[in-house]
Write a structure and sequence with these properties.
Elements lengths: L6 E5 L4 H12 L3 E8 L5 H15 L3 E6 L2 H5 L28 H16 L3 E3 L15 H13 L8 E3 L7 H10 L22 H13 L9
């Protein structure tokens, strides 16, 4: 049954994880408000294109696209500084050069402002702890601490829960759940490097391809 007047603000990159998270919120009876960030990432145009396709498939009526070009001024990440090469030799140990400093903290802060304005009770984000050994802002403990801070810094009547339904899943489980919910995976994009055909060798492509391989299904997007 659909919950009356329940809204979920879904942070949606155009990738597989955040798309599945949004579909799970819809399946749970929430009205979806979609939020996408252009942050000067290499695949910005492709990710935005995917976001709009996914919003259409979800029949989203309320959407926000925010431009955060200051990330390119901060730099320090291969995603936002084209002078730094995207690693393609295999999954990196430690914090990889594709980590964007405090990205999820900034995203969640802006999401909180919109959620409060819209009266949304939930912010959905597709973080996965499989990535957290490299990305500290994907850890469940960090996201829960942000939830606490958001509720301290908003109106007394505002009570926002940050849902991260994929946080303990493996990529193969994410693929299976996406197929079960008929998520249009052909509209999603994971590659850090390319906007036409996915490179297949960056960390994000490797994680995605391995997830499909372990799930026993073919990835519907094109690779070089």
């Amino acid at each position: 049954m659909k919950k009356d007047n329940k809204k979920a603000l879904c942070v949606m990159s155009g990738g597989m994880d955040s798309t599945l998270s949004a579909y799970m919120m819809k399946e749970s009876g929430y009205d979806i408000i979609a939020l996408h960030f252009n942050y000067a990432q290499r695949t910005q145009k492709k990710e935005l294109e995917c976001f709009y396709k996914i919003c259409k498939s979800l029949n989203v009526k309320e959407k926000y696209v925010l431009d955060l070009d200051f990330f390119s001024k901060i730099g320090a990440s291969a995603l936002t500084d084209k002078k730094i090469d995207i690693p393609t030799a295999g999954i990196e140990e430690g914090v990889p050069i594709t980590y964007v400093p405090f990205r999820n903290g900034i995203f969640l802060s802006m999401a909180a402002a919109i959620a409060e304005k819209e009266g949304a009770s939930v912010i959905s984000i597709g973080v996965v702890e499989e990535d957290s050994s490299g990305y500290p802002d994907c850890r469940e403990s960090y996201i829960k601490s942000m939830e606490h801070s958001i509720n301290l810094g908003t109106k007394d009547e505002t009570n926002i829960e940050i849902k991260m339904p994929l946080v303990h899943l493996q990529k193969s489980q994410i693929v299976h759940q996406a197929l079960d919910l008929m998520v249009p995976l052909e509209f999603t994009w994971s590659c850090y490097k390319n906007e036409d055909k996915a490179c297949g060798v960056c960390d994000s492509c490797r994680l995605r391809l391995n997830g499909f391989k372990l799930a026993g299904v073919k990835d519907p997007i094109d690779y070089e």
